[in-house]
Design goal:
- The protein is mostly beta strands.
- Helix content is 4%, strand content 31%.
- It contains one helix and six strands, in the order αββββββ.
- The strands form two sheets. It has a three-stranded antiparallel β-sheet with strand order 1-4-5, with no helix packed on it. Strands 2-3-6 form a three-stranded antiparallel β-sheet, with no helix packed on it.
- A hairpin with a 6-residue loop joins strand 2 and strand 3 (40-44).
- It starts with 10 loop residues before the first helix and ends with a strand.
Length: 89
């Protein structure tokens, strides 16, 4: 799932799981910014394969302090019927 790509995300804001909300009752339990600084991996509650979910992103900034919520409201497709890591790039 793609959500924010740019000059690098602020680690503190990118790793706050409450900054990500998925529709359909899917809960984001963990957010991890990987070493490239542009990919956030989300751990979620079980999804339904093929179902569409809407991702909302709030409160995340890049290393320059600019809001990095560019793909908030994106429709994303469920990838696994159980807990999954979702890439946000």
């Amino acid at each position: 799932m793609a959500a924010a790509k740019g000059p690098g995300l602020d680690r503190a804001s990118a790793e706050e799981s409450y900054n990500y909300t998925l529709s359909g009752g899917i809960v984001v339990s963990n957010a991890l910014l990987d070493s490239n600084g542009t990919t956030v991996i989300l751990d979620t509650t079980p999804q339904t394969r093929g179902s569409l979910y809407t991702l909302m992103v709030e409160g995340i900034s890049d290393m320059s302090g600019n809001g990095a919520n560019r793909l908030s409201g994106s429709n994303l497709k469920g990838v696994l019927p159980k807990s999954a890591f979702l890439k946000i790039i």
